[in-house]
Design goal:
The complex is a heterodimer of chains A (356) and B (296). Chain A has 356 residues and is mainly α. Chain A contains 15 helices and 2 strands. Classes of the chains: A mainly alpha (356), B mainly alpha (296). At the A-B interface, helix 6, helix 7, helix 12 and helix 14 of A face helix 3, helix 4, helix 9 and helix 12 of B. Chain A: It holds the Pfam family BPD_transp_2.
């Protein structure tokens, strides 16, 4: 039999190889699943991973890549900080929703005014809303020791209900023929988050995602804060001796990841989504957790993982249209991918030796 | 507005049962030192498997059996990853939840709109699952506090290195505890689809699994505490539904936040008591969430 020998440090080669292995294993097992369900596995895999980029309809689907990857990357950057430090914000979905509501509130309050400050004010409101929603678990953990995992997650359900309430109540479009949902911000120029370059899919959220990647890289590898975060995650007691104040780290990580998630929500509601609806949350907050792990909590990895996850969203929709694959296929794929990733991770942390 | 206390209590028992099952299962896993955040995923899998089996066979009992098997089977993915591949338990539990939600959304489509077979009424007009849930409380208390296997399970959860040194099979104990937790979570989920809602809808557990996780903390890892916590949440849920039905001047969406807000409040209160209280209360099992790797 085999035995496991802990490695002193994780080799770079395995750190790069394991996410790739996980993606390949997901494709193979996913293909098997498709075959079992009576679909042609090769056609399904090609439709999901290849056709959105190079297939016949790629002119429409390629811009969608940045539309979907933007929020995922933005949220995952914030989550990665916390995950590194052992602070588990799994309620990004809620912070995303609240950020969108706060940003939309500014726009709806200003309507129909046309002023240059409206969009910047929305950005501030979106970030502040997400920050506040993320600070709730931080404060409750720091003051009372309540689990930030459970509190941040409970707040997702609360945020979803606030969104529903907003769509049916305070934010309902007065000219919307009594249908639930707010005014469409895409039709309100001062508040809209339009495509910056035609047919690229790039809007301000994508720009923010790139800035967030750069900032994450700087903080994690060039700033003492990154050192504190990494130490706190690897050896909490040693971190305390090094002068790290855990409470401040908790507030910082949950606050920053909340603000980034809030920004993602704001750019979504002012751009692709256009309005606050009952089902505004679309799962980006949860998928971003997978993006953060698949990217190994590293900015470059998060960029690639965000693009890949965006691809599965678009490919999943395409497969649904072309092959009649169930809509939830993508969710299953993403869950499976995270399983494989966590499983293969053993190769980076342990050496597998024959038992003597 | 008239609220008859007895009928409210009966409704409360029903609303508490899914959470009671799931939380008792998670309690056993956590007492063995395993933090499985996949309760929501196992519950929703149980809800679908149970509904499908009950619908096909016409027997709710077979439905619950299938739900237990499905929940346990799914939990074995978690067991393999955390016990053999030593993966992070928080991340793996999350993966289990995301996977379970996706899997059921995919396979549940054909069952939408179908009706569940009627439950067999048990003594006092309450169904057998309510009674089984309540009976599990003293049984698990007795098992954990008074039996030798229960002692071994607790030893594994408190200090896996010492337990290993004494020759107890840490990994096997934990795998069994994870499987038991999965089976109970599955049955709890099936209670929602078979006995409460009477049909299958996507994502129907709506956070019950996460509430169950909070209840285990609230209960301070004691089965009696789980019963109290589950009834408390049953109460909040029923009250909230009653207020909705009575047409109180508060939007439905805000009323339906009550169980989640109550979870947060209770979690804060119990955490504060552990942090500041003089008696302190019971702490979490010392090895909770830590991977075990014997170097021999």
């Amino acid at each position: 039999m085999f035995r496991l020998e802990p490695r002193a440090s994780a080799p770079l080669a395995w750190q790069v190889a394991t996410p790739i292995l996980a993606v390949l294993a997901t494709m193979i097992v996913g293909g098997g699943l498709f075959a079992a369900m009576g679909f042609d596995p090769l056609a399904a895999i090609r439709t999901i991973f290849w056709d959105p980029l190079f297939g016949p309809a790629s002119g429409y689907s390629r811009p969608q890549l940045l539309v979907k990857a933007g929020p995922l990357i933005l949220i995952a950057c914030g989550l990665a900080l916390g995950f590194r430090a052992g602070i588990w914000n799994i309620g990004a979905e809620g912070q995303y929703i609240i950020g969108a509501i706060c940003g939309a509130a500014v726009a709806l309050a200003a309507y129909p005014l046309d002023a240059f400050w409206i969009f910047p004010a929305m950005i501030l409101a979106g970030a502040a809303g997400g920050w506040a929603w993320g600070m709730v678990p931080a404060v409750l953990r720091n003051w009372f020791g309540a689990s930030e995992i459970l509190v941040s997650l409970m707040l997702v359900y609360v945020a979803q209900r606030i969104a529903a309430w907003m769509a049916f109540g305070p934010m309902k479009n007065p000219e919307g023929f009594n249908f639930p949902g707010s005014r469409n911000l895409q039709q309100y120029d001062a508040a809209a988050n339009p495509e910056l370059i035609a047919n690229s899919g790039l809007h301000w959220g994508g720009v923010a995602a790139v800035l967030a990647l750069a900032a994450t890289w700087f903080v994690m590898s060039r700033h003492v804060l990154g050192f504190h975060i990494r130490t706190a995650g690897a050896a909490p007691r040693a971190a305390r001796f090094a002068g790290v104040r855990p409470e401040r780290l908790v507030a910082l990580c949950l606050g920053v990841s909340g603000a980034l998630a809030g920004l993602a929500g704001l750019f979504e509601v002012a751009g692709p989504a256009g309005q606050i609806t009952e089902s505004f949350g679309s799962g980006y907050g949860f998928t971003a957790i997978i993006v953060a792990f698949l990217g190994r909590l590293h900015p470059l990895g998060i960029l690639l993982a965000g693009l890949l996850m965006a691809l599965t969203y678009i490919g999943g929709e395409l497969a649904q249209m072309m092959l009649n694959l169930p809509a939830a296929t993508v969710q299953v794929f993403q869950g499976m991918l995270l399983f494989f990733l966590l499983g293969f991770d053993i190769l980076t942390r342990y050496r597998i030796r024959r038992r003597a | 507005m008239m609220i008859d206390p007895l009928s409210v209590f009966i409704l409360l028992l029903g609303a508490a049962t899914p959470i009671l099952f799931a939380a008792l299962g998670e309690l056993v896993a956590e007492r063995a030192g395993v933090l499985n955040l996949g309760v929501e995923g196992m519950m929703i899998t149980g809800a679908l498997a149970g509904f499908a089996a009950a619908h096909a066979s016409g027997s709710p009992a077979l439905g619950f059996l299938a739900a237990a098997i499905a929940g346990a089977a799914l939990s074995m993915t978690f067991a393999a990853l955390t016990q053999f591949l030593l993966s992070n338990q928080v991340a793996t539990g999350l993966a289990l939840t995301l996977f379970g939600l996706g899997l059921t959304a995919m396979f549940g489509k054909p069952y939408e709109g179908m009706k569940a077979p009627a439950m067999m009424p048990g003594p006092l007009g309450l169904n057998w699952m309510i009674w089984l849930g309540i009976a599990l409380v003293p049984l698990l208390w007795w098992f954990l506090a008074r039996t030798r296997p229960g002692l071994i399970l607790r030893a594994v959860g408190e200090n896996h290195d010492a337990a290993h040194g004494l020759g107890y099979p840490v990994r096997r104990v934990r795998i069994l505890a994870i499987g038991f937790g999965g089976a109970l979570a599955g049955m709890g989920g099936a209670y929602i689809s078979i006995a409460t809602v009477l049909q299958w809808t996507e994502g129907m557990t709506a956070g019950a699994g996460w509430i169950a996780l909070a209840i285990v903390v609230f209960a301070q890892w004691n089965p009696w505490g789980v019963l109290a916590g589950a009834w408390l949440f049953g109460g909040v849920t029923v009250l909230q539904l009653r207020l909705q039905a009575a047409g109180v001047a508060v939007p439905v969406q805000l009323l339906s936040m009550a169980p989640y807000l109550a979870t947060i409040i209770v979690l804060v209160l119990i955490s504060a008591r552990q942090k500041f209280g003089r008696s302190g209360g019971a702490a979490a099992p010392a090895s909770l969430g830590r991977p075990f790797h014997a170097l021999k």
